[in-house]
Input
Amino acid sequence: MADSLHTCYMAASDAWRTHFKGCQPCQIKQPCPTGAPLRERFTRLQNAYLNHLRNH
Ligand SMILES: [Zn+2]
Output
């Protein structure tokens, strides 16, 4: 469970970072339509993962 959560978190983090690096709208103002769900997923999984760490 922890492993799969961590794997999802890492994958979401990679996807978001990779997109962010190559996307100007995401860097200078707000996430573009492609970047927004990537960032949302990353944020959600990051919170879930940090919560998980706190509770164990
Ligand atoms: Zn973008």
